[in-house]
Amino acid sequence: MNISHIRQTEITNIGDPFVLRVNDEFYLYATSFIKGFYCWHSKDMMVWDAPVHAYDPTETGFGSLDFWAPEVIEHDGKFIMHYTARRKSDDTLLIGVAVSDHPLGPFKDVVPHEPMFDFGYAAIDGHVLRDGEKNYLFYSRDCSQHVVEGRHESHLMAVEIDDMLTKVIGEPVAITHPEQPWETVTGDFRWNEGAFIVKRGGLYYLMYSSGFYAAPTYGIGYAVSKNALGPYVKAAENPVLHSVEGVISGPGHNSVVRGLDGVDYCVFHVHTDMAHPSEDRKVCLCPVSFENGKVLLP
Q1: What is the pLDDT of residues 65-100, one digit of tens each?
Q2: Would you call 60 exposed, middle or buried from its count of C-beta atoms within 10 A (0-12, 13-18, 19+)?
Q3: Is 39 in contact with 52 (CB distance < 8 Å)?
Q4: Contact of 101 with 79, CB cutoff 8 Å
Q5: What is the pLDDT of residue 113?
Q6: 74: Cα within 13 Å, side-chain hemisphere
Q7: Before 106, cis peptide (omega within 30)?
Q8: Cα–Cα distance between 165 and 183 in angstroms, integer?
Q9: Which residues lie closer than 8 Å to 181 by C-beta, 6 or more apart?
Q10: CA–CA separation, 16 and 105 (whole Å)
């Protein structure tokens, strides 16, 4: 891993960054530690404007706190945000959907009072893949309500959704669980989360995070499949982005965006204070490529 290719931004106190490109401009959404979400705007992904409060939950929203992992897709002339929050009635983490006419918002919930997706268990980190005439929602079945052999585990799931990106078609399928050595070092709490799919050359590259987000164990791995719903095979070289003592700590929860130079960039967070890892993280990015079944990072 060549650290010299990693660009660290001035955006701190965030988590789970996602960058949307609209024409030749960029919009960054992230876990912002407010009620709702901020959005940052840039023309080059180097200099970012002051954040705008893009989503502000109202009394009709389902979420009470822990607004996490917003992702936005431009679809049919609208901008659709999938996000995580805790349901007011029982504190369960679930996925909601909000819509706006502009990437800076304001985003408004599509349905009042209820999350858009309720699978009967805690679900976080919604990510939408549009694949020809089909659409898929990838998410993490959260460890807060998922116990396997006495361990709390987050598993990655996927399900087909409709053209409005709001309704499930069929049943969710499990696609990954914590199994590699770097994913199990956290003991009785284990994670696969933060899914992001890139399709290249007929292959589906699933990038995801494992480890504990507020510790150096956090990192990024990937798995590959010939089908959107799997089966996915994890790379033997995982994690492909990981902590390097004294240099970088806890890289994770990434997205991928095409830059103005035609290069794909992996956008992710790292701990702002390496000596004291916490939820305070900063935005970083580095080049990434997808070739012959491999995710290639610096």
Answers
A1: 999 999 999 999 999 999 999 999 999 999 999 999
A2: exposed
A3: yes
A4: yes
A5: 76
A6: 11
A7: yes
A8: 31
A9: none
A10: 19
